[in-house]
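In response to reviewer comment 3 from the previous cycle, which asked for concrete evidence that the modeling workflow produces usable outputs, we include below a single protein chain processed end to end. The sequence was submitted unchanged, and the resulting structure tokens are shown without manual editing.
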Amino acid sequence: MQFLTVTAGSVDLAFISDHTITVPFSFPQPVHRVHAMLQGFDMSFPEDDHHLHRLQLDPQVHFDDRASPTNGELRVHFTFRDDGSGPIATFYARLLLVGE
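The workflow returned the following structure tokens.
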């Protein structure tokens, strides 16, 4: 079993309310399957007055050990609904990838 920590997004960049971030990954040794687990995330708004109604985070691993037994992509799709002044926010997520 192998472990990788990957990050998606940035606390310095603003994203729209429905966005997908793609992060390539590479294990040092071949694996057959990869699973993603959320370790933590941070989301904030550039302005102060926001009322967050919903936040959805969907990490998806795109990995085919026949194409490459070490490399793949993690796609993190996030959406939020807000009653504040704009549909943008900064977003940062840290995920643990487990390769078997």
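The radius of gyration is 15 Å. We consider this sufficient to address the reviewer's concern, and the full set will be provided in the supplementary archive.
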